[in-house]
Amino acid sequence: MFHLFSDLEFSTIVLLVFALLFVLFYEAINGFHDTANAVATVIYTRALKEQLAVFMAGVFNFFGVLLGGLSVAYAIVHLLPTDLLLNVSSTHGLAMVFSILFAAIIWNLGTWYVGIPASSSHTLIGSIIGVALANAFIMDTSIIDALNIPKMIQIFLSLIISPVIGLVVAGLMIFLLRKYWTRKSQSKKSSKKRERIFMTPEQREKLYGKKKPPFWIRIMLIISAAGVSFSHGANDGQKGIGLLMLVLMGIAPAGFIVNMSASTYDITNTRNAIHNIEDYFVTHNQDLTTVIGSQSTVDSNVSISDLNQYHCDYSRSFITLNIANNLFNKMNDYESFTVEQRSQARRILLCLSDTVSHVAKQPNVSSEDKQYLNSVNKDLLKTIEYAPIWIIISVASALAIGTMIGWRRVAVTIGEKIGKKGMTYAQGVSAQITTALSIGIASYTGMPVSTTQVLSSSVAGTMIVDGGGVQSKTIKNIALTWILTLPISILLSGSLFWLAQKLI
Description:
The protein is an all-alpha fold. About 75% of the residues lie in helices and about 0% in strands. The chain contains 21 helices and no strands. It has helices spanning about 10-45, 50-65, 70-75, 80-85, 90-115, 120-140, 150-180, 190-195, 200-210, 215-250, 255, 265-285, 290, 315-330, 340-360, 365-380, 390-405, 410-415, 425-445, 450-465, 470-504. It is globular and about 75 Å long. The chain starts with 9 loop residues before the first helix and ends with a helix. The mean pLDDT is about 80.
């Protein structure tokens, strides 16, 4: 591992270490900022004691990061255009990284201090956008080209839609429970037992003198809370992994722009994927002329040196394929590549991947072909969408440690200040199941969503349907924070990046 840093100057290595520590610090803040989402319901329904709930959340966050994959991580990385990542000096990369981190940490700590459940995802994405826009302004380039616009729109849609889904689904679950749960019982005694799920802990203690929920309800609360923690680790932990990879690619591109540990088998898969894409494009050229151009074969006269003027364009796909073939046909490992060739390989593979994804979305492409193209795409990206195991474990540890501290401020807001009345067992279970499933599906599909937004909106949905409404002051504060998070983080990171460039 250490040989990957051998070409860096000592001062750059020191700054790189600080950057990595800052990322882990950000992830720890993310842990104690968002832990409240998992523990608030089990604590306020008295299903678990505070210390045990927080410990459980930390453990499941850790395993969520380990087992969550990398699709969300690279959704974050690819938010920046490839050219910005590949064309940065180490000082430029440091300025980019520290601007993103400082902006994200400042806003996260500020909202945590006042106890408002703001979105760490919004903060991080806003910070990345701010740096990209500031870079376009400094370099006097197009703002449209400053960001990966399709990826940004995709991420924004997931962030906007996910809390709405949380609100509606959790509210619907409560409605269905109210309508059908007690009706299934055949006796008054059975009906009374079933109605206990709609009690608050205070009501249960007053009526029965018992502080804890009924056994089966308690089990449901604990399992769903564990699910929220695991889903949070799988989604938000990947953002930390993506941020660490962004740091390493920006500051030490020679060692991390591609997977230097990629096996011959992985590279062979990449090579085969290139050939498979070529075969598909040649075979279906007439159907895809408007997308990939009118060539019917790959032009072997196109030189790899054309990369100096190369710009990714769907209509030049056969040129891209030719360059890819020239790069990979006789290559067995990335060690044999120069630093420039590694950057070229990443750029070409990302361009091909983007083209394949675009082709797969065409209306005249069959469902079988779409499935085939998506499979080929995975093989194509295997050696550039990666994360070393030490990065995954570092992020998992930082998130787990952060989870076990500082959770109380936001937990109080979620548990006491969203609804006008206390949280019932049914509301806690509904909110947690909705959150765990929503975030789990988002992580599987590679969509970064906000755990904070999904759970807060799920709690609000249950309160609107079954809790006597919500506290308007708290909802206004949360909504205002959600609205301000993106523009403030964009301005913060952009200003910091601009200032850093002036000082360098």
